[in-house]
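Morning!

This is the sequence you dropped in the shared folder:
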Amino acid sequence: ENDGIQYASHLPIELDQSSSFAQHIAEMMDDEELREKANMIGEWGDLYESVVDGLDICGLDDKVEKRKIIKLVAVPWGYGASNRTCKDRLLKYRTESPHKAKYLCSLTSLEVRDLTDRVVKQLRRELRPCVDFQTRVKNAIDSVRDGGEIEYAFWLTPTRFMVFQEVHIARKKQGEVFNG
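The structure's back. Tokens below.
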């Protein structure tokens, strides 16, 4: 009980967790079509199902597993993760839930990488505003890094929350080592 006292908050409120990465990007990009795909307006739909319908994966007939694969790739990809990170997420899921990942269990690591690349390619086709958002963020970060005046990027979110992100320079990966 709060004795009738009301508190103002500027914290974002979680609504439904339905394709939240797409919801965030739809708002930041002010994109009506993505809002609809992400269940913010109109009839309820399943963003992952729409991607599933556009992607033929030979040998995978289980729609539940196919949708799960799409979602496991889409969420980190939507927030800017690399294809490698998305692939690692699929491999982790396969290890943790082999009973739910029969198709993934039938693939080699290279085949999982190729599957990840195909899913990302389909996501890029289906969710163009996400690609535009990622490009804008990359350009902003490159501008800060190349300018050399400050070591972080900052922006004001739609909920009036100021975000500061340090710019990191990654070293080029040497390659994978076979671990037996």
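Headline: Strands lie at 152-156, 162-166.

More detail when I'm at my desk.
O.
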